[in-house]
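Hi there,

I know you've been waiting on this one. I reran it after we fixed the sequence typo, so this is the corrected version. Both the input and the resulting structure follow.
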Amino acid sequence: MTSTDPQRDRLGREEWARFWARGTVTTFEGHFSGNYDQEIAEFWHQALEPLDDGACVVDLATGNGAVALLMAAWARTQNRSLAITGVDYAAVDPEQVRAARPELAADLDAITLIGGTPLEATTLDAGSVDLVSSQYGYEYGDTAAGSREIARILRPGGRLAMILHHSDSAILQQAQEGLAQLDFCINKTDFVRLGQRMAKLFRGLKPGGTGPGKLHWSPGAIKIRESLLDTAERVQKRGETPTARATDAGFIEFLLPSVMQIVERSRQTDDASLARVWANLLAEVETYRLRMADLTSAAVDADGLEKIVDELKAVAIADARVRPLYYRGTTLLGWALTAVRA
């Protein structure tokens, strides 16, 4: 079993740092062509169009700089000059991105990434920024405090552009399905626990028998093996349901082969190494749960959006314009919000 804490639904600074250490650019690995594209990229290009050369742009909750990199690429192709800074409260290292994505070197050189800095307290100079941006980040923090900080660093007439998680988006549906798959595998079927028991028993079987793998299988080991295989079949069928296919959540696609491979290789793995492998897998499961729960709790419905707009108005960020943002014309991905510092 995992050591999940049902009372906790947010990733911590160190957990986000480990996630970004993979070198991934977006939080949706494998779902975009290297970085956000189509209508998402177009939204950011439109936000940059009115800026003068030399304008200062700050991307809040930047992670590994997906939006900042999009902006740098646009400025390069448009022969424009922008000072682009990304701020994130987790430790972020551009060299990890450079190692994972060497084709982004030129755009990484054109931006500054600052880690260990919450969006509610950037330490940037007051009135120094022409455009504040944030994508799938601002809503994870204290939005009232975040609004005050945005108002502080924006110059009069400076612009705000954000993409926020939408409570009815395809992203939220994917997160909810991912959590349902996790609950099925961990709690409802005990799949991981069965895998751990089978690995332990498998290591103790003596060679020379007539059972699978020419081993001496005890009645107890046979029973656990049959239970594991039956459960693996149930897990696979759960991953093939219409909802699972439609949302492409992917948790079962990750967990099922991972558990079975650990079991298969357990006889060739020493006790200490096997314990580390299980611990690493369970840590991955818990990080996934927290990330999906984090996303789910941060998603903004119509009432939450009205609250954010009111918080912005209270600090003289006005003329807020909000619309649903669709990807490839049909897939709802979030709220697109723009506003101006009075």
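Quick highlight: Residues 1-7 have pLDDT under 50 and may be disordered.

Best,
R. S.
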